[in-house]
Amino acid sequence: MAILGIVAFAAALLVSVVLHEGGHFVTARHYGMKASKFFVGFGPTIWSRQRGETEYGVKAVPAGGFVKIEGMTPLEEIDPADEPRAFHNAGARARLVVMSAGSFVHFVIAIVLIYLVLVTLGTKQVSTKISATSCVATTVNCSGPGPAAAAGMRLGDRVVSFDGVAVHSWKDFTRRVREHGAGPTSLVVERDGRRLTLTPDLVEVRRNRETGDSGNDRVGALGVRPGLETVHYNPIEAVPHTFDVIGSGFTGMYDTLTHRIGDVGKIFSNDRDPEGFISVVGAARIGGDVVSAPDSSVLDRVGQFLILVAAINLAVGIFNLLPLLPLDGGHIAVLGFEQARHGLRRLRGYRGPVQKVDFAKLLPATYATVVVLLGFSLLLLSADIFNPIRLNQ
Prior knowledge:
Layout lengths: L1 H29 L4 E17 L2 E16 L22 H30 L1 E11 L12 H5 L7 E5 L2 E2 L3 H11 L2 E2 L2 E5 L2 E5 L2 E7 L9 E5 L2 E8 L6 H21 L21 H12 L6 H23 L7 H20 L11 H28 L7
Antiparallel strand pairs: 1-2, 3-11, 4-5, 4-7, 6-9, 7-8, 9-10
């Protein structure tokens, strides 16, 4: 089953990359640029066919695809007859649209997949329903039933209120428990359609007040764990929730690129961050784990798999827009610099054409970026082979 998930994820990623290149291809053709090749895969050509001015084909290594747009930079040698249709001679708006089209396609894929999952399959969310009770380690050892179990709380109870205040989410509940500290309190739960009032005696532990991780704050503890429930949305409700998920993806990507970069040194250790950097191989392995999850229904597995594919598309789309050559974002950054410089010159009275950036001067930085990205990719690939992140332990 895990192999099936890996194969399905690889196929989904290949389709996504081909659609990415299709975005470049369609927009380039729309603006009159010459796209001479559109291939799926890399390496030796297995099959190709010339249709009009474009050669379409399949190559041996199914690891992506590419579109050959003539004249991507002034340094590229092309047929003089194609010079008027070269990419670098197109208008600024056309070049911006063509270079943004790939990431735009990834974003559309992510939005569509998330929306479809929310409407048709629903999504698992942490609920206020109790899935387990446990003892609480106030010192080194953990023994006894714990405050929740001792007060009569059972599995399946849904928390309604705590200390006289209504509970609307598990996050809200845990915050109130921590802030309460040690001592007795009232807890209303719903069980089999009836509401019961329990009186647990909370204990004091040392944890981080905000996250619940190990820390020095003195906070209250109850000894319960939340459950998961499937939440469905109608077609209208799903729209804002879809963009909430997309927004969290953007903030998560920003957090990874800024605050988690220091965790790269831990990718070969037992402390590897499960939400940190990962290679395509690692993502495929997680896809296999999702499909083979033993405690999930088929529909839950399909939903989680599609959300994973959406998350990868979102991450690839964002990464591709980073202002680094040879990424699309690097070309967009060069275009932006050209236009900003031209605007300043026009303010000073210049009325000539836009002066293009000398790409020859950018080649050293481009090569350096390629080397760094390749090295980083190989490092993550090695970590995902020898110290993989696994969902199913």
